[in-house]
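Re: Re: ligand-bound prediction request (bumping)

Still looking for help on this. To restate: I need the protein modeled with zinc ion bound, output as structure tokens. Inputs repeated here so nobody has to scroll up.
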Amino acid sequence: MSDCIFCKIAEGGIPAEIVYEDDQVVAFQDLNPQAPVHILVIPRKHIPTTNDLREEDAELMGRLHLVAKEIAMKEGIAEAGYRTVLNCNAQAGQTVFHIHLHLLGGRPMGWPPG
Ligand code: AMP
Ligand code: ZN
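Reply:
Sorry for the wait, this slipped through. Here it is.
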């Protein structure tokens, strides 16, 4: 999608610190990290929110989690623990309307989340 910042990152049109990419998934450092490790894992496919997911996206969403797990292992946070978050729409605080899985770790996480 032409005016989507995460589509542009996935296409290489906007710079980002990319830590992983394949034909379906891209992962990059969050610009405003909320934890020592804060990486965003996105599908190349433009899907605005989790409300827009279709049956055909089931495998793709699974791949986001598999990539997040691999990155967590590489970052050395898998054993201690980490959090993956998908914000959907206003009350969850979603600000970029291209699905992104937050991978957060490297410090204790509070619960309930804010
Ligand atoms: P959310 O609130 O779930 O929509 O999260 C959007 C995330 O994208 C925030 O954590 C932002 O810091 C991050 N972000 C926004 N623009 C960029 C960018 N150009 N590169 C990397 N991360 C970004
Ligand atoms: Zn997009």
